[in-house]
Amino acid sequence: MTPGTKKPDISGLRVAHVVATDAFAGSERYAANLAIGLSRAGAEVTLIGGDPGPMRSALAEVGEDVVHLPASGLTSSWARLRRLGKRDIVHAHLTTAEVAAVLAFPTRSHTVLVSTRHIAARRGSSMLGQIAAPAVRARLDGQLAPSTYVAERIDGPCVVVPTGVADADQGTHDQPVVIVVQRLEAEKDTTTALRAWAASGLAGRGWEMLVAGTGSEGEALHELALELGIEGSCNFVGRVEDVPQRLARSGLMLATATCDSFGLAVVEAMACGLPVVAAAAGGHLETIGPVAGAALFPARDYIAAAALLRRLAEDGSDRAAYGAQLRERQRHEYSLSAFVDRVAAWYLDVLGPRNSRSSQDRAVAGQLGLP
């Protein structure tokens, strides 16, 4: 928010987020962070879906102020929403959650239904999406996009609200570790990360690579590490719950995704001043791209990625200065408080005449630059 701007008043607003999965990746972390921020702002928040263990750990800082209800898939998510009853806002994440919300609240007289589009594509990549897309488009009262990259590739009008993350202390970054935090799926292109690591030669200089994440390419990536001869310096640790602590200690992050809608892990790295080497694609162009001297390489170009890793690893002062720039950008552009304020103002704007708050409160959306 700009100085002097009135914060949106959402006290008592009843909000339900639904993610309809049993995972805890970018979309689920987005929903959890937003739920925490909205709860602190006075809303009554329920979150449906997500891996119960990590989700409850993420929500622990607000205790029971955010109600978490496990659900996975269309049927259980729909049932949770139906039992929950009328909400002021139901906020869906991904197509299955959208369909569950439409089935639970088919008419606008029941509740306002909005969605965050986490994937930079039109609905219809799955059979469910193809069947449900017309009904979802007709029922939605509004859509958010976390980046311009997403907004330009989805169907229907939307408002761009960049995702925010909690500010973090400056990390020590005293361990010679290149960390990769991403799902092991094709679109994340972890193959390029392994090839870049092998080409960098950093293992011979006392560095190691740490790959945090799981996915369908896990076995193939282990085999590639053996083929490249890096199995001794490339550690696959699976899904971990101490990512912030690992980011704070690591020396570099490598992000190879070719079409990240936003890149939440990258911005979390920025928050603690961790230097990021990233593919010049997707949301990375909007997050670290504007930073002077951003360490971006052409997507899938592992030789260029290796050169950037090597340069930063060899120059501690350059590495620290670059990390400081990234941290400053996160605080100015991607803070959690500003993100929550923008979403809250958008909620009030979407509620429109049905919102009993004053016109002054609703005008906050305009003050925050939302249409």
Uncertain ranges: 357-371
> What overall geometry do the principal axes of the alpha carbons give?
globular
The SSE order reads EHEHEHEHEHEHEEHEHEHEHEHEHHHHH
Query: Strand order of the main beta sheet, please?
Result: 3-2-1-4-5-6-7
Quote the CATH topology of the largest domain. Answer: Rossmann fold
Into which percentage range does the β-strand content fall? 15-25%
Number of separate helices: 16
- Class from secondary-structure proportions: alpha/beta
The end-to-end distance, rounded to whole angstroms, is 15 Å
The average pLDDT is 92
* Total number of beta strands: 13
Describe what you observe in this structure.
Helices cover 42% and strands 15% of the residues. It folds into two domains: 14-164 and 335-367, Rossmann fold; 177-333, Glycogen Phosphorylase B (Rossmann fold). Helix 10 (264-271) crosses helix 13 (316-333). It is built from 16 helices and 13 strands. With 371 residues, it is an alpha/beta fold. A seven-stranded parallel sheet has the order 3-2-1-4-5-6-7, sandwiched between helices. It has a six-stranded parallel sheet with strand order 10-9-8-11-12-13, sandwiched between helices. The protein is globular, with a radius of gyration of 21 Å.
